[in-house]
Structure of Response regulator transcription factor:
Amino acid sequence: MTRTILLVDDEEEIVELLRIFLEKENYAVREAGNGEEAWVLLQREHIDLALIDLMMPGMDGYQLISRIREKLRLPVIIVSAKTGDVDKVTGLGLGADDFIAKPFSPIEVVARIQAHLRRYYDLLGAQPVAEIKPARSICGSLQLDHESCMLYRENQSIVLGPLEYKLLNLFMNAPGRIYTKKQIYEAVWNEPYLEDSNTVMVQISRLRDKLEDDPKHPRYIRTIKGLGYKLVSQESGE
């Protein structure tokens, strides 16, 4: 069985180095440059182990580890240049299983990964990524039911198609976050974004037709000129 490793680090050189060594050992590798991107991947993909840097823009490693431990069950290894005792104790106290200091030996990192995977899944018999999913995601007056893929807006039920559900689920995972068309396409369609087509815009329009009272003047899914789209919580207005 091929295990999937998530690398969460904003240093591209480190991610690429680890990817090379991990792929030599026949691991599948996923990448994220910050905590928000990692959390989206963890919600929609099967991940067996996460390697997480502490200092990243946006959601940092501490916040990501805390969120993982609230919802997921998988081994977590910190890889960080912050090597003080307080940093180690804080990270391990939040639920990380191991701490590796930068600079590191890639061979040692791979060996640590293998040891944790063997202990976690083979010796303890844990189920890979036993995720405790909430029955619904809630953002203000919007409730997205994950079992029926039904949207409820102010107690009104709205039937969603598969792409509409995946699109809205992405937005509701991080209300207020701006997603570029590239990020949306790769998360919803799960394919590389190769060109600037109208695919994302068309799907946004279809979702607005179902969600908004006036799709031409949307309350929920806002266009951020030159950047992308975001979901606005009506309570916060942001």
Notes: The two ends are 44 Å apart (CA to CA).
